[in-house]
Design a protein that fits this description.
Layout lengths: L3 E4 L2 H4 L4 E6 L6 E2 L4 E7 L3 E5 L4 E6 L6 E2 L4 E6 L36 H9 L18 H10 L32 H17 L2 E9 L1 H16 L6 H15 L6 E2 L4 E2 L6 E3 L1 E3 L3 E3 L2 E2 L7 H16 L13 E4 L20 E5 L3 E9 L2 E17 L5 H16 L3
Parallel strand pairs: 12-16, 16-17
Antiparallel strand pairs: 1-8, 2-4, 2-7, 3-6, 4-5, 6-8, 9-19, 10-11, 12-15, 13-14, 17-19, 18-19
Helix pairs in contact: 2-3, 6-7, 6-8
Length: about 400
């Protein structure tokens, strides 16, 4: 009896580490063409691998928790004419820690929801019973949750649930400390940061202050028009646009070190660090930024950030960046240095918290104290690729663009 292999797509996982997060079907259950079959957690995103054909899940070759490489065999499907009773049921290898492969789950139950769907339900205060699923067999999708959130009205306040008795302390921990196992993403972020900072690139950071008054005035004048077109106008969009000027002035900041040359691409692809609550950081990339005006940058940025927070990025969205921006100021940080360079790139811009400061300005030849909205900006460089004067020229160009925005 011929079976159909279910493989991890090579193009979706190239250059990443992946492991099987959750099987959405159990051996013996029927599946439809393109129905989500298994969730794979990479070091950057969670993806769903769909069924390559109609059939019956005959074998799970990679159990939950198993690390898999691009093109790896995940499982096999039997033809749809084969009943569940006669389909081969090869025993799946136990997952990490001896856990067995996923047990059968009833169609439409909450155990079949993806991590993105569960997170969105929690963020919007919804429960699965309130959302009508449009997926196969009534499965709830991300779009279903977003649509339900738009229709929902604020909930009336309810009495707090009775307090539960405190859980017994973990016998392996002192003072009841929780043990949170590393995800693939968190482990890979740690390895990448250590490699960049300690083993690969000598980091040097330069710090400038930017007066954002001109940017804020421009944003106030155009924010409503952008919102009417469906695009939020964020301050990050201005920094992306200003970086284009600075990268054109100092192309080396857009390059990367190799043993025999500095490679400077002909295109500017800027990644923007995006925090995922409780999970880590991803850096989706805006492609060929120099071709975009402010509206194009704002639209591309909004679309990538929305998909990142809804767990809908593809691995390709996170590859190929030539420069990175880390807007750490959104969480209140004034200054962060050094910000670890995203290898194999050569520089990363840090943007601190925007706040009103007393600064000295010169008017008609006289120095005065003025209140201005300012932030610190930092550029951390790979000192093998750039020298201090190049870093400072980059920052002078960036700050001048921001302070003279019109």
């Amino acid at each position: 009896m011929a079976t159909i292999d279910v493989l991890l797509p090579a193009d979706q996982a190239e250059g990443t580490r992946s492991q099987v997060l959750r099987w959405l079907k159990a051996v013996g259950q029927p599946v439809a063409l393109h129905e989500p079959l298994v969730e794979i957690e990479t070091d950057k995103v969670t993806i769903e691998v769909p069924a390559p054909a109609d059939g019956v899940l005959a074998e799970i070759a990679a159990a939950e928790g198993t690390e898999v490489a691009p093109g790896a065999l995940l499982g096999r499907l039997a033809p749809p004419t084969v009943s569940a009773a006669t389909a081969p049921r090869a025993a799946a290898a136990p997952a990490a820690g001896g856990r067995a492969a996923a047990a059968p789950v009833p169609a439409g139950s909450e155990t079949r929801m993806s991590p993105a769907v569960r997170r969105l339900l929690a963020q919007h205060g919804l429960v699965a019973a309130e959302v009508r699923g449009s997926g196969e067999g009534g499965r709830i999708t991300v779009d279903d949750v977003l649509a339900a959130a738009k229709r929902a009205t604020p909930r009336a306040a309810t009495a707090p649930a009775p307090a539960e008795a405190p859980a017994a302390p973990d016998p392996e921990s002192a003072e009841g400390t929780r043990r949170v196992p590393h995800t693939v993403m968190r482990r890979r972020i740690a390895e990448h940061m250590v490699q960049s900072l300690l083993r690969t690139a000598p980091h040097v950071t330069t710090v400038f202050q930017a007066d954002m008054s001109a940017v804020l005035a421009h944003r106030a004048a155009h924010k409503a028009a952008f919102e009417r077109s469906g695009t939020p106008l964020t301050l990050t969009a201005y920094f992306v646009a200003a970086c284009v000027d600075a990268l054109q002035a100092v192309p080396e900041a857009n390059g990367r070190w190799t043993e025999d040359a500095v490679l400077i691409p002909g295109r500017i692809d800027i990644g923007v660090g995006t925090a995922l609550e409780g999970r880590g950081l991803v850096v989706p990339v805006i492609r060929d930024v120099a071709r975009l005006d402010l509206a194009g940058i704002a639209a591309a940025l909004a679309e990538l950030v929305e998909r990142a927070r809804a767990d809908r990025l593809a691995p390709a969205d996170l590859r190929g960046g030539t420069f990175t921006i880390s807007n750490h100021g959104v969480s209140g940080s004034l200054l962060a240095a050094p910000i670890v360079i995203n290898q194999p790139q050569s520089a990363i811009l840090g943007v601190g918290k925007l706040e009103k400061r007393a600064v000295v300005v010169t008017r008609d030849g006289r120095d005065e104290i003025a209140i201005r909205s300012c932030c610190y900006v930092t550029l951390t460089i790979d000192h093998r690729v750039l020298d201090g004067h190049q870093a400072n020229r980059f920052m002078e160009t960036l700050v001048r663009r921001l302070e003279r925005w019109n």
